[in-house]
Amino acid sequence: MVLFATMSVALDLEPFRPRFPWLTADLQTIANRIVPPRAGLGAASSERIRLPMADGSGDTLLATLDRPQVDRGGPLVILIHGLTGSENSAYIHTTTRHMLSLGRRVLRLNLRAAGPSRTTCGDIYYAGRSQDFRAVLGMLDPALTAGGIFAIGYSLGGNMLLKFLGEERGSAPLIGAATVCTPIDLSVTCQHMLRPRNRIYHRYILGQMKAEATAEGARLTAAERAAILGSASVWDYDEVFIAPRHGFAGAEDYYEQNRALRFMPAIRKPTLVIAANDDPWVPIAIYRGFDWKAHADLTPLLADGGGHVGFHAAGHSVPWHDRAIERFIREITA
């Protein structure tokens, strides 16, 4: 396990070691896509939550609230998926099942137009759409959040979460947060994804992005639809659709204005930042360059392995990052 700062919270967690057969970074990364999560969430009860946006768009985000059979109190855990993910992504299900087993309530949030929210939203999420998360927090039932709120953001959802925390500084209505394999520098990560070794990943993700952006419910002009379908890369997609759609001068301006690194120094809530040295999607160099020692509220947990949102560890059925997050929650709520 590689740590680049003295952690402000002691997790007492063993170093990550991969579990057979997920022995390489790529196998760790694709495991969530080729092995479906266990069906169901045990004895938990689930309900659909509708979150209408008050921005004049007419869009309504959808979420699922899962309650454990035995509620042991503590904070509500909000899960925020990554690019082209949803409440039904394998890693979301896995974390939900773990948190429920510990007696915690979980809210699986679909970002604007993600998953089931696609049919109820004409617009679409992007890496820095923190205003939607701010609106969601303001709509939650106070009885549900009486024990506080802890948010977990995965990949692109983590970038949005870190941006939100930096914008809110000490006033963020969370007791803490965690991010997993987040592209905290969007431009560098995009260029990293465009490397020849990531060709298959890139082709898959771009196809998913196009399908998501043009699916039923999308409110698009003919020109936008043509631009999306004609995009030859993720950078092109952001240049011709995401940036102009949301008021940015182009892809690089969008990346610069929304990269989490700009906002992380202002975070004033306990935040666990998890990344893998061998992540094929997000380069670890963007984490090494940050001055962790100067920011006491940020706890880096940078592992030697784990791939992209993998962390399938030897000796455990629960992913390493989920166990780290649970220990972090226990420490900050003790």
Walk me through this protein's architecture.
It is built from 11 helices and 8 strands. It is an alpha/beta fold. It has 2 domains: 25-185 and 260-333, Rossmann fold (3-Layer(aba) Sandwich), CATH 3.40.50; 194-258, no CATH class. The longest helix is centred in the middle third of the chain and has 16 residues, at 199-214.
Key phrases:
334 residues; alpha/beta; Rossmann fold; 2 domains; eight-stranded mixed sheet; 11 helices; 8 strands; disordered N terminus
Indicate the CATH architecture of the largest domain: 3-Layer(aba) Sandwich
Biggest sheet character: 8 strands, mixed
**Class by SSE composition:** alpha/beta
- How many alpha or pi helices? 11
Helix and strand element order = HEEEHEHEHEHHHHHEHEH
Mean pLDDT: 95
From the 3D structure, determine the CATH topology of the largest domain.
Rossmann fold
Inertia-based shape:
globular
How far apart lie the N and C ends? 25 Å
Count of DSSP E strands? Answer: 8
Radius of gyration: 19 Å
What's the short version?
With 334 residues, this protein is α/β, with parallel strands linked by helices.
